[in-house]
C-alpha cells in the first residue's frame, strides 16, 4: 500500500489482503507471535486511518505473547496501549467488530492491574462485524 493511495480505499485494500485474514486467524487461534508478525507487516505499510486499528490489534497480540512468557509487566503496558488505540477507533473497522475485543482487552487489563488470575477470562477474539458481508473468521 503506497502512502499516496486514497485513504478511503485503504480499508478495502486491507480487507482484500490475504495477510490480514491470516493475522486475524492467528489472533483467534492464540498464535500470538505469528499474529504479531502479520499485523506488524501490514501496520508498517499503512499510513491512513486504519493504522491505529492495526497497531492496537498488534499491541494486544503482543500483550498476550508477553503473558505466555510470564511477563505481566510488559503485558500490562501493551494491553493498555492497544486498548487505548482501539478506543479511539470506530466500532467497526476492517470488517471487524471492535467493541467485543475492546471489552475483553479491558477486562484482561483490569485483571493484570489487580494481579488477578487471567486464566478465568477468555482470550480476546476478533469477530466479523454484522452486515459487512465479510466471510466468517475462524
From TrEMBL:
Coiled-coil positions: none
One matching Pfam family: DUF309
Top-level taxon in the UniProt lineage: Bacteria
Gene3D superfamilies reported in the protein's UniProt record: TTHA0068-like (1.10.3450.10)
Protein name per Swiss-Prot or TrEMBL: DUF309 domain-containing protein
Species, as recorded: Cyanobium gracile UHCC 0139
